[in-house]
Amino acid sequence: MEADQELTEVAAGSDPAEGLRAVRALHELADRLEHVQMRNARDQGWSWQDIARHVGVSRQAVHHKYAKSNRLSGRDNRR
Amino acid sequence: MTPRFSGDCRRMVGRAQEQARRLGHPFLGTEHLLLAVLDNADGYTVAALRSCGVDTGDVRRGILWMIGDRLDPEALTSLGIDLQRVREVTEAQFGVGALASTRWPTPVTGHLPLTRRVRAVLELSVRAARRLGQQRITPEHLTLGILDDGGGIAVRALKDAHIDIAELRLAIATYLQRDAA
Q1: Residue-averaged pLDDT of chain B
Q2: Cβ contact (<8 Å) for B90 and A71?
Q3: d(CA B13, CA B33)
Q4: In this complex, which of B75, B80, B86 lies closest to A3 when CB atoms are compared?
Q5: C-alpha angle with apex B168: B43 to B33, nearest 5 degrees?
């Protein structure tokens, strides 16, 4: 509940500097976590189509964003 | 006799390696050394910075900003998100550095190569110990090495935080001499 209150005060608050900073931080964290889970999915053999369905975007969109990344394409999967 | 690196100093370099891996960097730079030094709350460098009225958090944020790490723990806390907790959970599942910036192409593991500047810093920390007539190279000598080198992201972050490098160097050298006496 306390977190909800803070969210209202900051991300939806009247100070643009605070609000934008919070939103940017959230974007960045979401982006990192998306990468982690994309890689996880690819490591587990998911197709771009499978991933796209769960992310809620087109296969092309997912492929465009991630296929060039060595971390995800499987070409250099050194784990 | 050539001064030798103390266990504390070796552990500090190890923690710097950890910082680099966590950020997903495939090398060890002065920024990682300084991040490790700043994390060591019991160390004299942190005490010296505080006595100069410096917020070590500012220096840390300056480094992270410069190297393009845009994760912002404070802003996330304001949203009720505990970044440290998110990091722990993610790293427990996917390994250290899982949450690193995606700018670096491959995940990094193992011992990271030192940048040329870090090699110079280590050499300068040996010289600093020798100059002070000391046999053991401590983490504080490492800080002196960073300051004596005078370049790299670490020193830039210190200068950005309005730290007087000469004053800090003097404070640490004085502490080391007092400590040895």
Answers
A1: 90
A2: no
A3: 7
A4: B80
A5: 50
Which of B165, B181, B173, B158 lies closest to B128 in space, CA to CA? B173
Residue B83, chain A, CB below 8 Å: the answer is: yes
Residue A11 in tokens:
């991300």
The greatest distance separating any two alpha carbons of chain B, rounded to the nearest whole angstrom, comes to 55
What ipTM did this prediction achieve? Answer: 0.70
Tally the C-alpha atoms within 13 A of residue A16's C-alpha that lie toward its C-beta.
0
Chain A residues interacting with chain B (CB cutoff of 8 angstroms):
2-4, 6-7, 9-11, 18, 21-22, 24-26, 28-29, 31-33, 35-36, 39-40, 69-71, 76, 78-79
Q: How far is CA A29 from CA A58, B40, B75, B87, B90, in A?
A: 22, 26, 11, 10, 12
Which 8-state DSSP code applies to residue B137? Answer: E
**pLDDT, tens digit (0-9, with 9 covering 90-100), for B21-69:** 888 888 999 999 999 999 999 999 999 999 888 899 999 989 998 887 8
* B76–A32 C-beta distance less than 8 A: no
